[in-house]
Amino acid sequence: MSGRINFQLQLFLGLVLALSLGWLYQFPQPATDPLITPTPSPAPVFQNLSGGWLLQVRFFQAKLPEVVALTPLELLRLSPKNPQGKYFIQILDVNSQELFIEKFDVYFLRTGSSEILNSVEQSLLIPALDGAVKVIIHSPQGEISHAFP
Amino acid sequence: MPFPNGNTALKRSRFLNNFAWWLNHFWPMPKHPNLIGVQGNRDIILAVNARGYLLNFPKSNARTVLEIDGGGFLPEFAGAFNLVKPAIIVDYLTQYKETQSAITTLFVPFSIAQSLGWEAADIIADFSISLVPDQPWEANSDQKVDGTATPSWVRRLLVALPVIFGQILIFAVPLLVYGPYSFILGELSLLLAGIFLAVLWNITKVCGWLKGLLIGLVIGVFAGGVFLLTSIPLDVLLRLIVGFILCSVWLGWVYEGLRPA
Predict the structure, then answer these.
(1) The domain containing residue B56 runs over which residues?
(2) Residue range B102-151, pLDDT digits in tens
(3) Is residue A79 part of a domain?
(4) Residue of chain B nearest A2, judged by CA positions
(5) Subunit contact A22:B183, Cβ cutoff 8 A
(6) Beta-carbon contacts of residue B35 (< 8 Å; ≥ 6 apart)
(7) What is the distance between the alpha carbons of residues A101 and A103, in angstroms, rounded to a whole number?
(8) Chain A residue closest in CA terms to B248
(9) pLDDT in tens, B73-83
(10) Which CATH number goes with the domain that contains A141?
(11) Is the pLDDT of residue B26 over 90?
(12) Do B89 and B183 sit in the same domain of this protein?
């Protein structure tokens, strides 16, 4: 049985395979420091907040809600005068009492001449956790916690 | 050297011919198999149906050329990957023999003869075998018919590397659409699958893509088992294995060569 095909079919199948391979190998990218490479959030859901903060914590392969979103109000409650600064996130696996700590920065995006608080997205890669989890976000002024499930 | 390095060569630009031959190392360029020559010629020279090869092939009215199907690859590749089927050659020779009476000579490129197990002075379908270099137009190539002790898997690997590189070039742009990580991992999968497949090509007699599937599955599952011991997440590992198997199947197809359009 010969598996030979002609050039045109091979070229077409090759392109399909290359595109499929590219799609297959799209893995979550490691988090980058937003102060160096700021990434404006495209999330349209939060546009009605007209200039606020969006912080997303993405769980990497976890049986959890994928995203913990902090609304602008929550962030402003943490740091009412200046939400820009350093925050810490603690993720506590309630069953194993294992604790993961990540640091992240919140920053302003400037648009035109006026300083506007735009939505900002930051992704943090957190190892997979199976059980109940408590997420605590700290700032110098206070903390917010979310519990899952 | 048994084959006179004759030269009623084509009047095409030598540069273009050389370029086509060089290109043929990276991609198969098939032409329809054919038997070309003047009736009554006593000698037949065997060639493969690779365009880049045939453009440089010395033409002479005194010899008949049997352009046999080698998937469009050069003789080194077609020989190393056993792409030339002896039964087809014997069929051609038998038909040709009906118009001849005297014993004639079949000049066979060394790599092809090696893959078929033919040696100088063997008799195949009443033709006496004589070995010629894979590129008969090359000067000082007499020694190249003497044979070497290079293992077959090394020869396959050496001729497969340019072909893998050709595929890497074709895959580059579509992979880059998905970013640098997809690009690097995709190209790496192609390279690894190509190397494994070339080395293990003779392990079974099934057709190319099926060979690629079997080898890809075995190596993918084995590597997956080893990497399970590391901290690589399962879904990432599964994607890598599936990608590797796909590349292996694809290259199994590519190594079989192409059908002429």
Answers:
(1) 6-132
(2) 668 889 998 899 888 888 888 888 888 988 888 877 655 554 555 566 88
(3) yes
(4) B207
(5) yes
(6) B64, B65, B66, B67, B92, B96
(7) 7
(8) A17
(9) 999 999 999 99
(10) 2.60.40.3250
(11) yes
(12) no
Check: CB of residue B76 under 8 Å from CB of residue B111.
Answer: yes
Q: Are A109 and A122 in contact (CB under 8 A)?
A: no
Contact state of A21 with B246 under an 8 Å Cβ cutoff: yes
Give the rounded percent of residues in chain A with a pLDDT score beyond 70.
16
Q: Is B246–A7 a contact, with Cβ atoms under 8 angstroms apart?
A: no
Q: What is the pTM of this model?
A: 0.66
The ipTM of this complex is: 0.81
Give chain B positions within 8 Å (CB) of A1: 206-207
Q: How confident is the model at residue A17 (pLDDT cuts 50, 70, 90)?
A: very high
The token duo for A70 is 């902090």
Same domain, B61 and B167: no
* Chain B contact present for A18, CB below 8 A: yes
Token pair belonging to B191? 């390279």
Gap between the Cα atoms of A132 and A126, Å rounded: 14
Number of domains in chain B: 2
- Pair (B156, B242) in one structural domain: yes
Distance (Å) from the alpha carbon of A12 to chain B's nearest alpha carbon? 11
Per DSSP, the three-state class of A69 is strand
Number of domains within chain A:
1
Helical pair B234-255 and A7-24, crossing angle rounded to 10 deg: 170
Q: Is residue B143 part of a domain?
A: no
Q: What's the rounded Cα separation, in Å, for the pair B241 and B233?
A: 13
Q: Residues for chain A: how many in total?
A: 149
State which residue of chain B sits closest to A25, comparing Cα positions: B182
Q: What angle do CA B15, B19, B23 make, to 5 degrees?
A: 175
Same structural domain, B52 and B86: yes
